[in-house]
Every structure is written in structure tokens, then in C-alpha cells.
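Chapter summary example.
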Amino acid sequence: MSAADQSDPQMEIGHVLAMDVVGYSKLLIHEQTELLRRLSEIVRGTTPFRTADAQEKLIRLPTGDGMTLVFFGDPKAPIECASE
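The structure predicted for these 84 residues follows.
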């Protein structure tokens, strides 16, 4: 493989799951904090999240009142994560 081949970026399709908490801004600060902590705990406990994270095929983006997850590889992973 030449040096030019090594610098070419690899293209991959990401499958996105975006979620937010309805009514988040109406909650007290400690309620917001606890709700996001619980949401994160639930999501981290799902099989698709754990699998993608272990394979380094996951990007996690906090959004303030929720999160966005980008899964690479399995197009069903966001749906399965949301269902769990």
C-alpha cells in the first residue's frame, strides 16, 4: 500500500439514534441531572450500546436534554437500542 492510499479517509455509514427528554426545561436542576443520569445508565445497559462500544463502533454526543448515538456497522442497532 502506498503512502497516498494510507492517507485516504475510510467512508462508513453511521446509523443515528437521537433522543431527548420532553419537558426537560420545566424540571428543577437536580431533577434534570438525575433524569439524564438515569437515561445514560439505561442506554449504557443495552446490548447494542455495549456491543458497539466494545467494538469502538459508536459515537456518543450529549445534547443537553438528551443524547445522540451514532452506530457504525449494524443498521438495526439504533432501533434495538431504543426498543430496549
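To summarize the output: The chain has a mean pLDDT of 92.
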